[in-house]
Amino acid sequence: MAAATGSISLSSCASSSSLSSSKSRRNLPTAQCCTFRGWNNSTVRKSVRGGDIGFRISAISMAPEKVSPSSFLDRKESGFLHFVKYHGLGNDFILVDNRDSTEPKITPEQAVKLCDRNFGVGADGVIFAMPGTNGTDYTMRIFNSDGSEPEMCGNGVRCFARYIAELENIHGKHSFTVHTGAGLIVPEIQDDGKVKVDMGEPILKAIDVPTKLPANKESAVVKSDLEVEEITWNVTCVSMGNPHCVTFCRKGEQNLEVDQLNLAEIGPKFEHHQMFPARTNTEFVQVFSRSHLKMRVWERGAGATLACGTGACAVVVAAVLEGRAERSCTVDLPGGPLEIEWREEDNHVYMTGPAEVVFYGSVPL
Ligand SMILES: N[C@@H](CCC[C@H](N)C(=O)O)C(=O)O
């Protein structure tokens, strides 16, 4: 059986619902887990206690011919955190069924340990599926991999929608109302399995982004100078519920070659810049055409990630405000493309992209 290999079984995960393309398979993490076992215990078991992590990680590779994912999702033993790992274009999350409580099942400190790519499961964040608030179907809360709590996560909410569909055994086209720190968000699962999300209206008022950069007469920060050590960048600031600083070029230049940037060096300087009192996510953008952009992101609380949904939305809003692009764009991220539309009629931003299961796991708490 595939699960006996001591690593996560691609063939078994693939049929669990969505790991069908070779691209998705390539996005699987390399073994981050300490214990692998087949569902029916007929397999290899390796246990390791990882450093000071304080709990053991178990990853359970599915044997679909014997067990369906739904029987894993039904697991309720106390003393364990059962989770499903998802990714949206390589932006990966540990999804936790928290529908029975308004308190997250783990603390920010435990989230940091779980997200660790060497001693934990490995993820950019932990997402909790919680009971609805003010009449919404569900509430989504997130911890970044550094334990901070952002208001919203675009790739995360697509994963959230697919996770809810799995939990509730919903098939086909379906939409949910989700309460988040950024207000009401409405993801809709499409017939092709992609998720289209009504991300709401962008926030442009400097004080609400928040940024201390000087605003224009509409109170927005568009193409402003931002000094980062010796270099002046032109930046536009947009909140999609969470703060984004978008740059298309250094002052006096026209465009960026985003592959040339050393994100690990410059990203933290933007994130912790004094002009951003709540820190910031930063998007570095290259314009290919008026409907095709390429970005790399340095995320607040997570560093360089393979994709950022709220970031891609902020990029299109910023590109329109700077007169660089139309309202409908394909945004290429390191993990793949997102389709973004900033609709004139309702001022809402719509994001469409994939969300995929990676594996199912349990962690003794
Ligand atoms: N990757 C996410 C954004 C997650 C939150 C972000 N790190 C923050 O602190 O604001 C996305 O896809 O939007």
UniProtKB/TrEMBL annotation:
Q: In which pathway does it act?
A: Amino-acid biosynthesis; L-lysine biosynthesis via DAP pathway; DL-2,6-diaminopimelate from LL-2,6-diaminopimelate: step 1/1
GO MF annotation list: diaminopimelate epimerase activity
Q: Where are the compositionally biased (Low complexity) regions?
A: 7-22
Which Pfam families does the UniProt record give?
DAP_epimerase
Which Gene3D superfamilies does the record cross-reference, listed alphabetically? Diaminopimelate Epimerase, Chain A, domain 1
Record keywords, A-Z: Amino-acid biosynthesis, Isomerase, Lysine biosynthesis
- Can the keyword Iron be found in this entry's annotation? no
Region (Disordered) residue ranges read 1-25
Q: Where in the cell is it found?
A: Plastid, Chloroplast
Q: What GO terms describe the biological role, i.e. biological process, of this protein?
A: lysine biosynthetic process via diaminopimelate
Which GO cellular component terms are attached? chloroplast; cytosol
- EC class, as a word, reads isomerase
Task: Write the Enzyme Commission number(s) for this entry.
Answer: 5.1.1.7
Q: Where on the tree of life does the source sit, at the highest rank?
A: Eukaryota
Listed HAMAP family: DAP_epimerase
Query: Which NCBIfam families does this UniProt record tie to the protein?
Result: DapF (TIGR00652)
Name the protein family: Belongs to the diaminopimelate epimerase family.
Please identify the protein, giving its name as recorded. Answer: diaminopimelate epimerase
Q: Which organism is it from?
A: Carnegiea gigantea
The lineage, from the top, is:
Eukaryota, Viridiplantae, Streptophyta, Embryophyta, Tracheophyta
